[in-house]
Amino acid sequence: MEFVDYLQAVTDGVMQGAYYALIGIGFTLIFGVMNKINLAYAAAAFGGAYASLGIAALIGSGDDFGLPPLLMFLASAVAAGLFAWIVYTICFRFTPDHYELATLMATVGAFFLIEEIAVHATDGEPMDFPEVLQGIIEDPMIEFSDAFAIRGDLLTIFLLALIAMAVLLLLLYRTKLGLATRAVAQQRTAAQLCGISVDRTNASTFIIAGVLGGLAGAMIGAAVGVLSPLLFVPLTVKGLIVTVIGGLGSIPGAIVAGLLVGGLENVFLALRGITERDMYVMLLLFLFLAFRPQGLFGKKVLRD
Amino acid sequence: MDDFTWGMVQIVGVHTILGLSAYVILLTGQVSMAQAGFVAIGAYVAGMLTVLAEWHIIPAMVTGGLAASVLACIVGFPALRIRGLMLVVATIAFGEFVRLFWFNFDYRIAKGDIVVGPEGGEGFKQIRFFPENGWTTQDVAVFVWVVAAIILATLWWMDRSRAGKVLRAVGEDEMAAQSVGINLTVVKVAAFTAGGFIAGIAGAIYAHYTTHIEHLNFDILMATFAIAYPILGGLANVWGTLFAAFFIQVIVIEVLRDLGDVRNLMFGALIILVMNFLPHGLFSAKVVRKLKEWMGIGKMSDA
Amino acid sequence: MKHQIMFVAAAALAFAGTQSAAVSADREVHVAGFGAKSGVVRSFGVNTEAVMRAAAEKINNEGGIKLGDGTKGKVVVTFYDDRCKAEEGISVVRRIASGKAVVAIGPTCSNVAEPLFGVLQKRAGDASDTGLQFPIFTDTAIKGGLAKISEWAFRNVPNESQMYQSLFKWVKKENPGFKSVFGGVEEDFAHSRFTWYKVMETRAQEAGFKVLGRVKWLLNDTNFTTQVRQMKKAKADVIAISSHPFTLCGVLKEMKRQRVKYKQLIGLTSSSSLETLRGCSKQAKGIIIPTSFAPVTAAAKEAAAGAAKFNGSADLHSAAAWENMFILKGVIEKTGVMAKGDTVQADRRKIRDGLAALKSTGGLIGGIQRTKEGEAVKPYVYVHAQGKEWKILHDPRK
Questions:
Q1: CA-to-CA distance for C28 and B10, rounded, in angstroms?
Q2: Testing the interface with C: which of B254, B255, B267, B291 to mutate, by most C Cβ within 10 A?
Q3: Contact, C156 vs C124, CB < 8 A?
Q4: pLDDT tens column, A245-292
Q5: How many domains does chain B have?
Q6: What is the Cα–Cα distance from C108 to A299, expressed in whole angstroms?
């Protein structure tokens, strides 16, 4: 392989890293306010993408998707926000605060439940998902040379993801809701004393994270072109790895780590082949844990 | 009892051992999602010993367990520095790393007219020590339960000794435990090592009672089951894990099999329900106390 | 230990409860089916069950099966979900073997079949081998060479080695100008991997093609850009892809984006199902796949209609269950199976011996040869994707 091939691999990977970043942000947001893990997060995100397919099928007929791709992204985001709220209610709301194992296990249960509902609705078959620019430009490719080209649809997805991230940051740093969220994340008791409803803040954080997840789910569907329950576990794992490398609770960290993992993963693939690619991703994580356990931008956690 | 029931007895036994491997580590407050990796090591090592080196199952099993425990011990040290979500992610990554290692591992030798041994993505076939040596399903079930009983008894005894109190003290409040002179390093690494050994034993039996293993057997789903048994059963004592393994493998998976499609939908829903209504497990300290009162036993004997 | 004994007793009771529910009249021939009805391979189990029930209905409507003493018995089908998990598959078969079923059809997953066959007795009648003695007649699990693991295991699945041998030869004959083949393989799945390395690659070379290389991806990958780029660079005439519908669709879509040029696409036999068409009918257009089932004969059409009636579809995998039901009917009638409560084990042995003795059987699209190892050599046709259906491209028997 020549240099340009590596450049190509990194470019493709970084653009696809955008959805690792979105999923990583979701994990990190929830961890930030609740100090707990939501293992059903990626599953709920794909649940949104499946729901958007369902809605499109209701509206459309035959071969056509009933909705233009961008509306499907929106439908997926709304549905996933709703699912995230349901996951919050059945897994977090009533399980004990101080015993995180119960919550962890409940989210595993929710993962199984969402996965199985998707399987039952589709018989587990791969579902055709429209490309983001379908109907506008067919299979756009921006070709710079024979050896280097950028997928137009992936670039669109990448830009959409960046916009979503910017909106999220605005929401967190420029609105009251964001202030409340950050307050609960920093000092829950103090926030409560200031009259912030922790429960409502938690629920809204889940919904925000869910909406981002729904976008990511639809983006993955659009980037691959197919949705399958096979995606739930690997995207959960990659999302978690991104969260840790970025630093727990750090949104900029999750963004950078998502792009980093996406890009490096493709380099590992080019260098070592598919069977070893993920082993090197794991090694990268181990390196971070050994030498920079607080992640890229995380603060040192003394006690939790 | 028929062959099927003995087969179920085997499965409950192996899954109890799997659950106990996570139980020991959970007592110290650490969630290990790496158990499937340790199981894989036990399974491949023991399988290679009985198939390629023609060892007896018992030394092969113990060696498989030891191999897994060595690795678990090595994992235990870095695991000291991290906890909570970080540890969950780190151990998931480690488990996957081990799985991918076996996916890339190819070591076969000719034996008679066939070639045997692990063959990367194709898996490791024909691990037939049990049927080739005349062990019936019942013999295997008894063997599994002798092993499970030894592990149960050891852990139960440990739970009641000072060692158990130390583990639980670390699990409840690390700093408090440290301040009364408990050496966190020793305790946490020991828990990981013991958990790895037990998981390796479970793997050795798993390889032999399914006769064929491949890397996909040892995925995150298996790791999730390992921690699900003690969490669903409750960490009050070892019986919770046993009860949960029985509940999931026999009631949910086997008895409800007749429900057909509904079974799989119920699986996730049941876990959510249990965690909402009995967050400390089916067999939590509170439930145990209530049961004792209800049965009119002031102080439960050694069951 | 008191608790453990209690649990075991409770377990036994629980099973007794579930099993007594199925008790009814004694002249019934119980045939069990098992396979995955959950997870991503759920459609396999759904289809096999539908086909088995349709075949049983047809057999019963035509008077049932003639038993050893001349009376007629009805076929009763029970189907179990094994979730495509080895442990569950073994447990399901032990459960079936503890009941009244005389034979089982399944499993759907090769990763269940391989361990399951290992649990069976290796050589029938070998008293020193304590393996399970129960005949299994597989319809779906297709990975090459599994039935030889045990003499109790039989399969009626297509012989990929032979199918691809003739397919590559045919492609070469029809298009002498095609010189090279490039491969794509789903690397971490036992079946697709086996079929590429041990079947497609060698068969293509034998047919006079130059294999320029191969790219690999994993079962649940989402990113194929790097691999497809390599595929494009190779500029092969024929691209052969050994992977299941999900990644097949992902790769085909990426190939279209990158505008990979090829003269012919060849796919894995398991992908000649509705799944591929549902996932990417446009991109799959023209892909040739050899398959052992297509609704080309009256019998095949009847099987397809029957499956549809029970909410399934007959494809190359599940249609074999229909054949298996009728092959078993023949074997049961020929070997004098009694289907009485006290003859279950003897009946199973008769069926095993009967299946082992078969040299050829009928099939939906033509006669099937049977090998000594318990495998089938099935007739096959080449189909290609056209719109929302698979159309027959060529029948090599003609």
A1: 31
A2: B254
A3: no
A4: 999 889 999 999 999 999 999 999 999 999 999 999 999 999 998 888
A5: 1
A6: 50
Chain A positions touching C42 (Cβ under 8 A) are 119-120, 123-124
Q: What is the band of A190 on the pLDDT scale with cuts at 50, 70, 90?
A: confident
Residue of B83, B104, B268 with shortest CB distance to A112: B268
Q: Cβ atoms within 10 A of the Cβ of B77, count?
A: 12
Residue C232: its H or E element? helix C225-234
Look up residue C151 and give its amino acid: E
Judge: B280–A99 Cβ closer than 8 Å, yes or no: yes
What is the C-alpha to C-alpha distance for residues B66 and C274, in angstroms, rounded to an integer? 48
Residue A113: closest C-alpha in chain B: B268
Min Cα distance C329 → chain A (Å) is 30
Structure confidence at residue C2 (pLDDT): 44
Q: Which of C279, C311, C278, C307 is nearest to C293 (CA)?
A: C307
Identify the domain containing residue B205 by its residue range. 3-220
Q: Is residue B33 part of a domain?
A: yes
User: Within chain A, where are the H helices?
Assistant: 3-34, 41-59, 69-87, 100-122, 152-174, 176-186, 188-193, 198-224, 232-246, 251-272, 274-291
* Within a domain: B272: no
Neighbours of chain B (3+ CB pairs under 8 A): A, C
Residue-wise pLDDT for C116-175, tens only, equals: 999 999 999 898 888 999 999 999 999 888 999 999 999 999 999 999 999 999 999 999
Low-confidence residues of chain B: pLDDT under 70? 297-303
DSSP chain B: --HHHHHHHHHHHHHHHHHHHHHHHHHTT-----HHHHHHHHHHHHHHHHHTS---HHHHHHHHHHHHHHHHHHHHHHHTT--THHHHHHHHHHHHHHHHHHHT-B--EEETTEEES-BGGG-B----HHHHTT--HHHHHHHHHHHHHHHHHHHHHHHHSHHHHHHHHHHH-HHHHHHTT--HHHHHHHHHHHHHHHHHHHHHHHHHHHS-B-GGGGSHHHHHHHHHHHHHH-SSSHHHHHHHHHIIIIIIIIGGGGGTHHHHHHHHHHHHHHHHH-TT-TT-HHHHHHHHHHHT-SS----
| Residues in chain B within 8 Å Cβ distance of A241 | 89, 93
Query: Least CB-CB distance to C278: which of A5, A125, A270?
Result: A125
Q: C80 with C48: CB under 8 angstroms?
A: no
Q: Is residue B60 part of a domain?
A: yes
Give yes or no for residue A203 having a pLDDT over 90.
yes
pLDDT of the residue at C314: 92
Contacts of A269 in chain C (CB under 8 A): 226
Residues in CB range of A259: below 8 A, 6 or more apart? A14, A17, A18, A20, A21
User: Tell me, what's the ipTM?
Assistant: 0.92
Instruction: Dig out the tokens for A125 from the structure.
Output: 């078959």
As given in the structure block, the two tokens for residue C252 are: 């085909």
Report how far residue C16's alpha carbon sits from residue B255's, in angstroms, rounded to the nearest whole number. Answer: 10
Q: Which chains contact C through at least 3 pairs of Cβ atoms less than 8 Å apart?
A: A, B
Look at residues C326, B275, C206 and name the one whose alpha carbon lies nearest to residue A107: B275
The answer, for C358 touching chain A at a CB cutoff of 8 Å, is no
Bridge partners (DSSP) of residue A181 are: none
Residue C189 forms contact with A (CB below 8 Å)? no
pLDDT in tens, C259-289: 999 999 999 999 998 889 988 999 999 999 9
A22-73 pLDDT tens trace: 999 999 999 988 889 999 999 999 999 999 999 998 887 666 677 888 999 9
Tell me, yes or no, if the pTM score tops 0.90: yes
pLDDT at B93: 95
In a domain, B98, yes or no: yes
